[in-house]
Amino acid sequence: MYFGRIVMASSWTRGLCVAAALFAASDASAQNFPAHPITLIIPFAPGGSTSIVGRAIADKMSETLGEKVIVDNRPGAGGTVGTRAVAKSAPDGYTIGLGYTGTLAIGPTLYAKAGYDPRKDFAPIGMIGHSPNSLVVHPSFPAKTVAELIAYAKANAGKVNFGSAGAGTASHITGEYFAKVAGITLVHVPYKGTGPALVDLIGGHIPMAFAPVPATHANIVGGQLRGIAVTSLMRTSLLPDVPTVAESGLQGFDASLAYGLVAPVGTPRPIIDRLNGELRKALESDDVRKRLQQDGTDPAPGSPEDYAAFIDKDETKWAQIVKSSGAKEE
Question: How far apart are CA 80 and CA 107, in angstroms?
Answer without folding.
Answer: 7
